[in-house]
Amino acid sequence: MKRLACAVMLIAGCTSAATEIETTVLAETLPPASTTTLAVLEGVDAAPGLGDRMFPELGNAGYDVATYDIDLSLNAELTRVEGEVTIEAVAEQPLASFVVDFVGHRVTSVTVDGRDADHARVTRDMRITPTDVIASGERFVIAITYEGLLSSVTLTDFPFPTGWQTGNGGSVFLFSEPDGASGVFPSNDHPRDRADVALQVTVPAEHVVVSGGTARLVEVVGDHRVFRFEIPDVAPYLVPLAIGAFEAVETDDGITTWMGNGAPLPPGFERQAEILATLEADLGPYPFDQSGAVVVDSDFPAALETQTLSTYTTTSAAWGTAVIAHELAHQWFGNEISLGQWDDIWLNEGPATFMTWRWIEIDRGREAYEEEVRRAWEAMSIAQLPPPDHPPGQDLFNASVYQRGGLAFVALREFVGDDEFFDFLRAYVATFSGKTVTTEAFLTFVLVILGPDAEALVTEWIRAEELPAL
Ligand code: ARG
Ligand code: ZN
């Protein structure tokens, strides 16, 4: 489901500025290869990418996924998987062939609308050629079966492997940002194409499967257990999944945290509902129907805002309420509002970092907030890092993206005052909810709501070589 934001819709009823934004984004969406004129009956060989500036091979042109039905079966050691994935998609061009992102595994069958389809694999892509051209606007069903070893994705210069990760004590879990989902299931692996996911996982009965969304339903089939989850409107990299020895810990606030290998609940995790409520006070209603957490027994020093159920490791969970506030803030910034380009990543990490400091302010007072802000500014002043917008190379998660991205929100808050600032944040969330945002669209929104001086200020914070003074 792909919806482009009409940035000034609320204010100006979607006038020319908004049209410009749509045009820009659409122009980026379709690489030149797929826009040549063609005879309708022939169809195109749709481009193997969505025009992402940082990851040109991620995502695929020519169709929009509506649903994924993902059925995975794992062995007792959690080393092998058999997968059966059914994708319902809508063609956006007449398609002679199209591509899905998929890495590793042995593909055992591919059908389109029930008929065997040719398929050829090149690195992270699989081009599928159905027997007949799919008409533009037509809904079609791709079914793919595969098997192979669980393995993570290392195809880019990205500094750590994504997708499947191994925890301690035999557990496995997903950490897919930005490109790991395609190492787990065939997909249109870009945040621009969100879809409804039905995930079914079958494991030997000693294991527990943890994911997000609704309708967790466990069936016992012989000595196996079948777990089922439905996660609506989610980008592939945000699908939560952890498998192993997990136990649910329900706290007094009604929130469930799944703990790996019998570990006790880390300090702070009993306050998730309270943190969520403070975020809602600033941002408006939490965008999803469920909220929970999983803490995997692992030393991996990061957490991920997997949708409706954030994924922590033993190491990152020890960071306490700050990391919880950060991942929960991402449910708005990153999950409810999706990135149009991966190099707009500061639009995820900047507001999530700001909201972390804001949580510290609410929890520990204004001085504690100012101390965080001062420390971040000082770290940036000696860090020699480029500004956060469009980080170079594949350096998605550098400290400037987080800290200077967060400071841009601090500076804006100082400039316009609390009332206008938080009204602005809520308007931004409401306007872009369920949609895609780009830095350009965000700056236009700042301009329209808060005026040219505010836009100039934010632009300087995210783009100037020199770190602005606070
Ligand atoms: N979006 C994740 C976060 O919560 C990104 C984690 C980056 N991963 C890493 N290994 N540094 O910030
Ligand atoms: Zn983050």
Provide the descriptors you would attach to this structure in a database record.
alpha+beta, five-stranded antiparallel sheet, disordered N terminus, binds arginine, binds zinc ion
Detailed description of the structure:
The chain is α+β, with helices and mostly antiparallel strands and 470 residues long. The protein has eleven helices and 23 strands. The protein has helices at residues 9-12, 16-29, 272-283, 314-317, 321-332, 346-364, 366-383, 399-416, 418-432, 439-450, 452-463; strands at 44-45, 63-74, 80-91, 95-101, 106-112, 115-116, 118-122, 125-129, 139-149, 152-153, 162-166, 172-175, 195-204, 208-210, 214-221, 224-234, 242-244, 246-250, 256-260, 292-296, 309-313, 338-339, 436-437. Strands 6-5-9-3-2-13-16-15 form an eight-stranded mixed beta sheet, with no helix packed on it. Strands 10-11-12-17-14 form a five-stranded antiparallel beta sheet, with no helix packed on it. Helix 3 links the parallel strand 19 (256-260) and strand 20. Helix 7 crosses helix 8. The longest helix is centred in the last third of the chain and has 19 residues, at 346-364. It is globular, with a radius of gyration of 22 Å. Arginine is lined by residues 160, 177, 302-305, 326-327, 330, 349, 397.
